[in-house]
Amino acid sequence: xxxxxxxxxxxxxxxxxxxxxxxxxxxxxxxxxxxxxxxxxxxxxxxxxxxxxxxxxxxxxxxxxxxxxxxxxxxxxxxxxxxxxxxxxxxxxxxxxxxxxxxxxxxxxxxxxxxxxxxxxxxxxxxxxxxxxxxxxxxxxxxxxxxxxxxxxxxxxxxxxxxxxxxxxxxxxxxxxxxxxxxxxxxxxxxxxxxxxxxxxxxxxxxxxxxxxxxxxxxxxxxxxxxxxxxxxxxxxxxxxxxxxxxxxxxxxxxxxxxxxxxxxxxxxxxxxxxxxxxxxxxxxxxxxxxxxxxxxxxxxxxxxxxxxxxxxxxxxxxxxxxxxxxxxxxxxxxxxxxxxxxxxxxxxxxxxxxxxxxxxxxxxxxxxxxxxxxxxxxxxxxxxxxxxxxxxxxxxxxxxxxxxxxxxxxxxxxxxxxxxxxxxxxxxxxxxxxxxxxxxxxxxxxxxxxxxxxxxxxxxxxxxxxxxxxxxxxxxxxxxxxxxxxxxxxxxxxxxxxxxxxxxxxxxxxxxxxxxxxxxxxxxxxxxxxxxxxxxxxxxxxxxxxxxxxxxxxxxxxxxxxxxxxxxxxxxxxxxxxxxxxxxxxxxxxxxxxxxxxxxxxxxxxxxxxxxxxxxxxxxxxxxxxxxxxxxxxxxxxxxxxxxxxxxxxxxxxxxxxxxxxxxxxxxxxxxxxxxxxxxxxxxxxxxxxxxxxxxxxxxxxxxxxxxxxxxxxxxxxxxxxxxxxxxxxxxxxxxxxxxxxxxxxxxxxxxxxxxxxxxxxxxxxxxxxxxxxxxxxxxxxxxxxxxxxxxxxxxxxxxxxxxxxxxxxxxxxxxxxxxxxxxxx
Length: 827
Known about the structure:
It is built from 32 helices and 24 strands. By secondary structure, the chain is an alpha/beta fold. It folds into five domains: 21-91, no CATH class; 126-296, 2-Layer Sandwich (Endonuclease, Chain A), CATH 3.30.870; 322-490, Rossmann fold (3-Layer(aba) Sandwich), CATH 3.40.50; 498-725, Rossmann fold (3-Layer(aba) Sandwich); 729-826, no CATH class. The chain has an eight-stranded mixed beta sheet, with helices on both faces.
């Protein structure tokens, strides 16, 4: 449209054209065609750009028919006409005759120093394809290097022969003192160490390497040339620093310019600087890191490299990933700076909680200068065996640790990996409270249960470390408040791990399921499992839907490795039978399944001879099954904790897993059921932003991730979330009135409501709802109303000192004002 000056009416399609008088007349012609125009105001920030673009396009057309001298006169005439606008005079700058351009500013003694210029003018963009009529990328880069004042390069790999193409220009840049920064990776082992060595030693470059082997991480190829004059340029495309890419390969690269594409250049600068500061990119020093780089490149390349012989400990040593190193440092700060020795570490499933605990133990052992006694507690044999192997690998000691399980008793009692069930009151009575120096409790969100509490009440370790991916409990109790003074020592949630490419990307499909659950009994904030099992078990129509969805969404169902989460043992066996009838090898497992059968099923799943394991509360947490590439969510849960635990079973990265496929079956639910919690846990979006994202099909998920909702499923989810937003005082009053024992904690637990919902609006409160529901007298004591209006302010208090002070002031025997400390008086 911007270049279309014909008299035709616009045709159907997308536009972004400034409405001019001429275009407005043509839009009127649409009235008789059955089509209508859709328009909107230009945003305040965009208006200068949009209007200037229109004027520029018009002037360009007019100037094409004028001589150079006439063009200068016309340009100055336009500029002078702007001087009548108030405040515009300072921006008016007339053009000299010619027109002429300043090409460079050089020292008087060396006027030809800037004679080398790229073939593409600095103020223009271009597509360079290494075709015969294009300048080669190598030529352009040499010319850019000759006049740059700073250089940034990021590319997946750096080759020796590619470096040779630019060596003269790089040497010249070093002589002029030009800073050069390079970001690269060990991706597929393609980088050559001697090329990085030369960049650092011969050309003075700062080089940072991403050693991540589980994913590509960096696949961009781009150069940025910054100039003190402000004429920055950049190249973004397919070319790594290799001979083929720079000279004769079929590579495409776009040349950007701070004049023509200023916003893109600014984004390049900001993104590069963000990458540069990421812990995942580590500074490379040839004298310090050569052996480590060789080992990483060898592993990434799938074999040994020339010149690498013998066995080195650097290859055997378990090194923390950058995110793990950062979390361990935060944990260290809690102990050494703040003198806190009960700490909680929250990390998304798949980011290596157990590895961090083992590395932390290794660090503590080194700091203490002795071998501290360790107790590691978990609730399943498989988890304990897996954790013990992790500690043995980190410590490079195959004899480390002993198991305390049914049938296995330690002999030395120095490093014990114990099940919760084995630590009975009788067993605890035989162990001194201070026997263990360090205690690590896995899946610490169980910490408020009696079985875990008796363990913590008995022992008095020097260091207590809790591990969990989900500190938010389903019963509303908050473990960090109860055990860790409201603190989390270090954390990385699911969305952070996905954004940092630490987990497998997922494709989540919300599949429309016509099963009607609106009449299923609702108990204690969830569906009654027996009633759900009766609805799902034997339901051939729903089972056919599940099989059809698998065949439609999974690339090759015969080679998938899937977990199906069921509501009951009967439901799991029914689904396994149905899948076997459909030609897919499937088994059902539960807590009742003998351990050898569970072990064999997992081995068969890994080998590919088994396609699906249907389970009941067996694989929700703790167990590491990296090969799983498909999840079937066959039981509804509005618990973010359970949802994330199930999702975590498939998010671990493996070399063969491109993506995790998640099939969630969206039925017709009771009004109490809530989709909001699981989607917020998945995306970290607020409720209103979540609705917008669902409506727009989630445009800003982490790289590689997709959430795709079928039409009816999308409508059901959005209606469900909107109903939670639209909850009003009348509806809340009805819900409160329906509870026989109206205690706030009980109501929140049973209803699944969030505390903030009760205090939304002016003056809403739990006390007010009780009065409305006639569970309290209609009128309260004098002065209650203004106090209740301020109660919502307490929802945001998370400072332990402030919480303690407020609790003291609210007590029946609260001290008088003049008895308070200065800080308490301030509160």
